[in-house]
Predict the 3D structure of the following.
Amino acid sequence: MRYTKIAFVCVIIIFSMLTASGMVSRTSKVSDKVIYYEKVVALTFDDGPSRLYTNELLDGLKERGVRATFFLVGENIEGNEEIVKRMYDEGHLIGNHTYSHVKLVGMSDDAIISEISRTNEAISRITGEEVTFIRPPYGIIDERVLWDVSLTPILWSYDTNDWCSQNADCIVKNVVKNVKSGDIILMHDVYKTSVSAALRIVDELQAMGYVFVTADELIIE
Ligand SMILES: [Zn+2]
């Protein structure tokens, strides 16, 4: 299990190295135009939507013209449909983070498929689009789960540990100091500190010339 997680992180790291070396170009496709950026990162938020914090985050991202990626827990969607609709309408990417935030590896095929399909259906009912991406909880996935879920996994290359520190100053300082172009940054929109940290990270990285894209734009050329 752990090796699979490491393997996926390695794929992202290798991709980042290739990009940094100029072997792979980072692009963002806007209609028919392909735009090349020198400094680009993706902010990703897991475990929402949160009735308490996600709207505040969406307000801040909208003000700053930033699109992010949200991996939703299916059981949090009910009652928060308008937040999901807003994410979609404002151009954010929405992915699956299972229905009840479970570790998929080790579960039966039926249970895995239920966890994934219930969340896919809850999202699609709101957006009208099929879900393409999954972030497995804890970043743990193996070949059998991959086969069952039929979605493309997106892990991360930079973990802010925001759930653990819940200290906005510390989170911002670490990200700004250590982030590099091509990073997929892991955060959670279920803590107040994460929302304020994320918006400060956007301000600081934009001032450094970074452009924010959705995570799929970093893994798909
Ligand atoms: Zn999670």
About this structure: Residues 46-47, 97, 101, 137 surround zinc ion (CB under 6 Å). The first helix runs from residue 2 to 20. Confidence is low (pLDDT under 50) at residues 1-30. DSSP finds nine helices and ten strands in the chain.
